[in-house]
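Data availability (excerpt). The following record was deposited with the supplementary files.
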Amino acid sequence: MTMTSPRITVFTGRFGSGKTEIALNYALQLTQQGSSPYLIDLDIVTPYFRTRDKAEELKRLGVRVVAPFAVGQHVDVPAISPQIQGAIEQPTHPVVIDLGGDKQGSRALSQYAPIVERLEYAMYFVVNPYRPFTDSVHGIREAIAEIQESSRLRVSALVSNPNLMSETSAEVFQRGHQLLEKASTALGLPIAFAVTSESLSETVDRQSLNVDLMSIHRFFLMFDSPG
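Predicted structure:
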């Protein structure tokens, strides 16, 4: 997938949406296009799948990982970090942000919202329609409203990531993507791109998608899909 990246790209979504995997892969694709992006880990909610846990590996691949100094499930909003603010404001490199996908998690970005709004940004809401709370258009609408209110930024587009982990088939993918198309129409939000695993990418009918398809490498191989 060839990307035209905005100055700042934010990935958010409910737990299990796959946003962290997608943020990592998105940043790595930017390196393949000659960029040296910053990847900011602002997910203060999910303790199991964290961008910062892969920092050294990503650094070797050309991605600079930035994270709050003190992060935990019970930290409502981490203190403004000069390192994070500096990464957002620097004019040379693209910025990718991995943001928590609920009211508490998305609030971590609100303190930087005035800065982000001044710059070119896109905020993508990643949806796995096989997860609770985003398995209907109503659920997707409610989740987006909560994130927008808490982060003080607008969602620009959806990212379609329908999967059942190892049980995902081309049919499972296509059925889930159809819900995303319904949500896109109902909410007036485009689908930026769809996502599938490397192993499934050759079996998906790309012609029927009408959007670009990103094939991702999975960095986290635990019991569940990363948030």
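Summary of structural features: Residues 17 and 223 are 14 Å apart (CA to CA).
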